[in-house]
Amino acid sequence: MIEKKAKATIVGGSIAGVSCAHALTSGGWEVVVLEKTSAPPTGSPTGAGVGLDPSAQQLIGSWLGHPQLLQQATLPLTIEQNQATGSATKLSRTLTRDEEFNFRAAHWADLHGLLYNALPADIFSWVHQFISFSISDDKASVKVKAKVIQNDEIIEIDGNLLVAADGCHSLIRQNFLPDLKLRYSGYCAWRRVLDFSGKEDAETIKGIRKAYPNLGKCLYFDLSSGTHTVLCEIPKKRLNWIFFVNQPEPEIKGNSVTMKVSEDMINEMIQEAEKLWVPEFVRIVKETKNPFLNVIYDCDPLRQIFWDNVVSIGDAAHPTTPHGVRSTNMSIIDAAILGKCLEKWGVENLQSALEEYQSIRLPVTSEQVLYSR
């Protein structure tokens, strides 16, 4: 008699969700990923750069089976430099410099594609919008209800475990913590990636390399009065930049943290950048098409991250600001630890597995959330 596999439904197909799919399938689980978008985010209009720490690199390499694939899709970040720039003089002074940083830089969509393409094609259910879930009386199973967006068909999926990988505005988490409110950080992040392929000798690129001489191996944090920027190079001749702006909390619609911006907003942002930053950085911002604006939220650390046979990972478990290049790495490690706990305890001891996952991750992620503020 063939033993039936344990089954998990993962809601959310971002980095947390696709990492969780790898971790659980590696442990022998059957997995279904529900994702409301229509396809993998190739050339994502809002994707930007991410930095992978050594632990995340090792885990991704193990899931891919060929660590060189990750090496080929990323650039080394061997240096982290924090510097301060005077808005009047535009002169920069190095504050700290770590030459044993050992991160790697990737484009978000490239990293997602690498992980997604290494999974069986039938794991993902695209254009499926999560609606609700119900837990059986004996806590042995959970039924997930979703809508196929293309035709409004309602489907139901039975499984042993529901994984909330649906981001900082998690609908699943709201079922258990309806009064939880996210904390607006006080600032937003303008960001985008500039593609300079074929333009390596342009004055803009020569200028930025002169102003930031370690681009290609360094993650730059530049501080000024009430604001800061992030700059690094990512593969395929691209520059990833972020400009943080202190401002009142803007009004956003729905659960997205990405705002639609107007030409007037972009022009105002550029004018503000000209007051604060060196001309070489401002030119990069000006030449980047369609920059977008992220509203930055976090929340006080949660007291628990699982309920019966529902568990949260990534931003659903610990909404975090982007400082310290932590959020993506936290999601990847969440997925790996969850997978190892499930593999160790088995579906027959699901509660013990989730308790161990929570006991390992909650103290660490709580500290990281607070440190990132």
From TrEMBL:
Domain FAD-binding residue range list: 6-366
Molecular function terms from GO: FAD binding
Cross-referenced PROSITE patterns: PROKAR_LIPOPROTEIN (PS51257)
Taxonomic superkingdom: Eukaryota
InterPro entries in alphabetical order: DHP_3-monooxygenase, FAD-bd, FAD/NAD-bd_sf
Residue runs in coiled coils: none
PANTHER family: MONOOXYGENASE-LIKE, OS06G0597600 PROTEIN
The protein, known as: Uncharacterized protein LOC111285742
Gene: LOC111285742
